[in-house]
Design brief:
- The complex is a heterodimer of chains A (558) and B (458).
- Chain A is mainly β and 558 residues long.
- In chain A, the strands form 10 sheets. In chain A, strands 1-31-30-29-26 form a 5-stranded antiparallel β-sheet, with no helix packed on it. Chain A has a 5-stranded mixed β-sheet with strand order 5-4-3-2-35, with no helix packed on it.
- Chain A starts with a helix and ends with a strand.
- In chain B, 69% of the residues lie in helices and 1% in strands.
- Chain B is built from 26 helices and 2 strands.
- In chain B, helix 14 packs antiparallel against helix 15 and helix 22 packs antiparallel against helix 23.
- Chain B is flat, with a radius of gyration of 29 Å.
- Chain B starts with a strand and ends with a helix.
- Classes of the chains: A mainly beta (558), B mainly alpha (458).
- At the A-B interface, helix 1, strand 12 and helix 4 of A face helix 1, strand 2, helix 4, helix 7 and helix 11 of B.
Chain lengths: 558, 458
């Protein structure tokens, strides 16, 4: 018995003093506090794992923060996975996806009659966007099986319009992005597939080290799957233009997607993070044609020449030089990849960013590049959880790992805050999606984290001495969030640049509103928006405030 | 029943939370905690034996170190670290133990401590080039560029010329000196260039704004560069402790790819006695039988595999391949049935569609054959052979413009494809495009295609 106590003591001690490079002193208060249950989020993800080691079981689930009922606050949507048919004696049916409406104070109430539960497949991820330009936010849910487009009727009640819209891709759907590559004012849809997989194709795989049964590596299937580009036809329907757009030139084991104008030509490009196949960078050539230039731009693989296990992705101007950098998170033993944009190519600046060591320890899926402490610099939150069995687990769940937090430093560097700094209660689960948004309207960005076979986290921002902030709602002339628009403004002499986007991370959809931390500054000056297509408007100076609307056509032409 | 070998780990708090430090041999300490029930039984038995061996001679550094090696390759990283630490304390001359501590610590993301361990290993043996290469690599990952450069330079002096040159090229790129990187990479003979070298060259050209040269270099990266590794005898020694079936199979598959089927076969057969229905093992065994010409045994193994894994498409593909190579009554129909099943299970294998197209063409189902070839080409548009097959079907239908277009695609994708040139010539002649046909025939002859008329006759 004494031995047992010694072992427990060691584990606790190791947890408390995890020796992270550059970790902050223990006196620093936690950045986040998990308030899911207190705030009414009682969603529990079910992977359906029943001993068959079916690949999708280790990959879900998804999460979104979006204002679906149009009342000005962020609602929460969580994607359920469930069970695959074929195993007798499994538990009964699992509830579908869940929508929770924000009461206005950051607490939530379930909305089971919203028609958003989607039971058309094994749920993976979600992305939000107003595809029909009717002023409310619609949802696109990715599944293993038919994906689902849920059209919002305006009050947060949804209709499944997938078949009518023609976007029910039936592959192993993972990430998706609404964006406007032809700048025609409506949102097109990019859908990422993982591998060509079905229950019948599952293989017996065993952990290389321990020899025990395990989930297969995607390479075992040797079946990279093509992605899809759906053009919005403006009448509620879409056309699959994947082939004519050039997407059939490359296939990969896709898990993450994000759209941004990487080459600064005013057109929306797309980056796809692939798992152990080379990443794709689809540069928009105009006319809805794309060319994969990942190799030429230097983001197909990392500095070591490895096509890493790319999962979540974030795109933002992390070094405040005005262009869009990329952060891709990967599996245990591989570093994050921080690709710094140099205008015509990326430099793998992972080491220079300070991410060349610490990030290796865990398997990272979701990722958020956002300013949590409102000092004007972007920080990183990484949602972690293994895919491989460990005989030395960190928790009862052998795949569970602690999530990580990195503080942004000047010059595009990051410093691990470690585990001691967040959250208040150290949570260890198998985390997947992470969505960002200020759910209680207090000026601090909060996080919604989906955990495999566990309750979600709602991590409320508790950063002490948090700076001021401003939140811009950037809307097209039609009144929808202007995906791809770039907002910039000067804070204490530094021009901060932010993108309007919902996609990114892993299986997640974030608040499209632009959040800018102001630090101690009282205002942001010379605020400008570059709209999809390249036109620029200037909106002037703003004081720190809860929310400012920047509508297309109402600024001064630059 | 789980067997847990647990001993007091009195020093664990210090080990877990403090940076590495030396201590007296007396502190080598107890055995690490290992849950042997968490691994394959065979591995568990082997580890238990090694734990017993250490228990019998607890101050034997080699036993401790080898236990660490076995623990590491079989998934017990924490326990392996403890064993390496104990071995390093017991034998302060041996460079391997801190070396292994360094590699494992780096994998777990703590490069500062990894470099500290590596420094101790280098102190004990400064002449081991891979240690300097790792030092350079990790220092680059910590953005300590000058020190990394010095480490790679040291590795070059110690004989690791290629890996050191690649490392120094990375340093040059990091320092914004792409031309210097290109100069360093020029030391690689063109035919010896690892895809990673092409990747570095492509990046250097891109940064110099020489986009065409960058594209040309990057085209050689193809499916991915892959890690630029170097021979590391110390790490190789760990492999002999790999105990899992997966690890063994991976090694055996490598040997199979290297035409070592005769040596591998008895090992696979022995493994099958213990794992009679293992999908991967049966697949490898079938491949070994095929390579050694034992086709009936191959078929028997594949059929056994299908009995236990009826929806595994690769067994269907391999059985189809088996029948395609035979010429007995009904073999072609059997082959097609398995191809159909394989395609239904996994429609992403172009070879299956192409073979199905050939079988359908043989049976005169030309429209269906063309559809199969199209399916194959959708998966691999650059496959000249399938374009050629499709052309032959169009020629059989005397649809000369379509046949010409197919053959032209074949030769465009493979200019050295003599049969396709000859078929194109024939199709052009049939279409009355005699001048073009003559030019094509010349091209075919230049390629040395002494193609008999009947070989290309539709």
């Amino acid at each position: 018995m004494k031995t047992g106590w010694l072992l427990v003591g060691c584990a606790v001690l190791a947890t408390a003093c995890e020796d992270q490079e550059g970790a902050q002193p223990p006196s620093e208060s936690p950045w986040f506090e998990d308030q899911a249950i207190e705030h009414g989020l009682d969603f529990r993800h079910v992977s359906g794992a029943d001993g068959r080691f079916l690949l999708p079981e280790i990959m879900g689930g998804g999460a979104a923060l979006a204002d679906v009922d149009g009342d000005g606050d962020l609602d929460a949507y969580l994607v359920q996975s469930g069970h695959f048919p074929g195993r007798e004696g499994r538990p009964g049916a699992v509830p579908g996806n869940r929508l929770y409406l924000n009461r206005g104070d950051g607490s939530f109430v379930s909305s089971p009659a919203a028609g958003a539960d989607d039971r058309h497949g094994y749920g993976m991820g979600v992305v939000a966007g107003d595809y029909d330009n009717d002023g409310d936010v619609d949802l696109y849910v990715t599944n293993v099986g038919r994906n689902t487009l849920l059209r919002n009727d305006g009050g947060g009640v949804f209709d499944d319009v997938t078949d009518f819209a023609g976007v029910g891709d039936s592959g192993f759907g993972t990430a998706a992005a609404f964006f406007d590559p032809d700048a025609d004012g409506d949102l097109d849809l990019f859908v990422v597939n993982y591998v060509a997989w079905s229950v019948g194709l599952e293989r017996d795989c065993y952990d290389y080290g321990t020899g025990v049964r395990n989930y297969c590596d995607p390479g075992n299937y040797d079946a990279p799957s093509p992605d899809r580009l759906y053009r919005n036809d403006g009448d509620g329907t879409f056309t699959d233009i994947s082939a004519s757009a050039g997407l059939s030139d490359a296939a990969g084991n896709g898990l993450g997607v994000i759209s941004a104008d990487f080459d600064g030509d005013g057109r929306a490009d797309v980056f796809v993070a692939n798992d152990k196949t080379m990443n794709h960078l689809w540069i928009n050539r105009g006319g809805l044609r794309f060319e994969n230039q990942a190799l030429l731009w230097g983001c197909a693989m990392d500095d070591h020449g490895i096509a890493k296990a790319g999962m979540g992705v974030a795109a933002a101007d992390a070094d405040d030089d005005g262009d869009v950098d990329l952060l891709v998170v990967n599996i245990e033993g591989e570093t994050d990849s921080f690709f710094r944009n140099e205008g015509r190519y990326f430099v793998d600046a992972t080491a220079a960013a300070g991410l060349g060591a610490t990030s290796r320890r865990h398997t990272r899926f979701g990722v958020a590049l956002a300013d949590f402490d409102n000092d004007g610099r972007l920080d990183i939150y990484e949602a972690n959880g293994r895919v491989a069995y460990s005989p030395e687990p960190e928790a009862r769940d052998v795949f569970a790992e602690p999530n990580m937090l990195f503080r942004g430093l000047p010059g595009g560097r990051f410093d691990p805050v470690g585990y001691c700094g967040e959250p208040a209660q150290r949570r260890v689960h198998t985390s997947r999606a992470v969505a960002v948004g200020d759910v209680d309207g207090d000026g601090g960005l909060d996080l919604l984290v989906a955990n495999r076979d566990a309750e979600a986290y709602l991590l409320m921002n508790r950063v002490s001495n948090r700076g001021r902030s401003i939140r811009f709602r950037v809307l097209t002339s039609a009144g929808r969030d202007a995906h791809g628009a770039i907002v910039s403004g000067v804070v204490e002499g530094i021009r901060r640049t932010r993108i309007v986007q919902t996609a990114g991370s892993y299986l997640a959809s974030r608040d499209p509103a632009v959040h800018v931390g102001l630090g101690a500054a009282a205002r942001i000056e010379d605020v400008a928006v570059r709209w999809p297509g390249g036109r620029r408007e200037v909106y002037g100076d703003f004081s720190a405030a809860a929310e400012v609307e920047l509508r297309q056509g109402r600024g001064a032409q630059d | 029943m789980k067997r847990i070998v647990a001993f007091a780990l009195a020093a664990c708090a210090a080990a877990a939370c403090s940076p590495p430090r030396d201590a007296s041999p007396a502190a080598a300490g107890p055995l690490p905690v290992v849950d042997l029930g968490a691994v394959d039984a065979e591995i568990g038995e082997r580890l238990a034996d090694m734990l017993d061996a250490v228990r019998q001679v607890p101050r034997d550094a080699s036993r401790r170190g080898e236990l660490g090696m076995a623990l590491e390759v079989n998934g017990f990283a924490e326990a392996a670290m403890a064993s390496y630490r104990q071995a390093a304390l017991l034998d302060v001359e041996e460079p391997r133990w801190p070396y292994y501590q360094a590699l494992l610590t780096a994998h777990r993301g703590n490069l500062d401590d990894a470099l500290s361990f590596l420094g101790r290993s280098i102190e004990r043996d400064p002449g081991y080039a891979p240690a300097w290469l790792w030092r350079g690599t990790w220092l680059l990952d910590l953005d300590q560029v000058e020190e990394a450069s010095a480490a790679f330079a040291r590795a070059r002096v110690l004989g690791a010329a290629a890996a050191a040159a690649a490392g120094l090229a990375r340093v040059a790129l990091r320092e914004g000196k792409p031309q210097q990187a290109l100069d360093l990479l020029a030391s690689f003979a063109a035919e010896e260039r690892h895809p990673y070298v092409h990747k570095l060259r492509g990046e250097a050209y891109a940064r110099l704004g020489q986009i065409d040269a960058a594209r040309a270099a990057l085209a050689k990266v193809d499916g991915g560069a892959g890690s630029f590794s170097w021979p590391d005898a110390r790490s190789e020694r760990k492999k002999r402790f790999e105990g899992s079936l997966s690890a063994k199979l991976a090694k055996l598959r490598e040997q199979l790819l290297g035409s070592g089927a005769a040596e591998v076969l008895p090992v696979l057969e022995e493994l099958r006695e213990r794992h009679p229905h293992h999908q991967g093992l049966l697949g490898a065994l079938g491949e070994a039988y095929r390579q050694t010409g034992r086709r009936e045994q191959e078929l028997a193994v594949l059929r056994h595999g299908l009995e236990h894994h009826p929806d595994y498409y690769a067994f269907h593909l391999n059985i189809a391949d088996h029948y395609l190579r035979r010429d007995g009554s009904g073999d072609k129909y059997r082959a097609q049935a398995h191809l159909d099943k394989a395609i239904a299970l996994n429609p992403e294998v172009d070879w299956a569609h192409a073979q199905r197209g050939l079988l359908l063409a043989e049976r005169g189902r030309l429209d269906a054959a063309i559809a199969s070839f199209e399916a194959a080409l959708a998966l691999d548009p650059a496959n000249a052979t399938v374009h050629y097959y499709a052309g032959m079907v169009e020629a059989a239908r005397r649809r000369w413009p379509e046949a010409i277009a197919r053959f032209q695609r074949a030769v465009a994708r493979d200019p050295g494809f003599a049969l396709a040139h000859a078929a194109l010539d024939r199709a052009l002649m049939e279409a009355g495009r005699h001048d073009e046909g003559k030019r094509t025939l010349k091209a075919a002859k230049r390629l040395g295609a002494l193609v008999a008329e009947e070989e290309v006759a539709p």
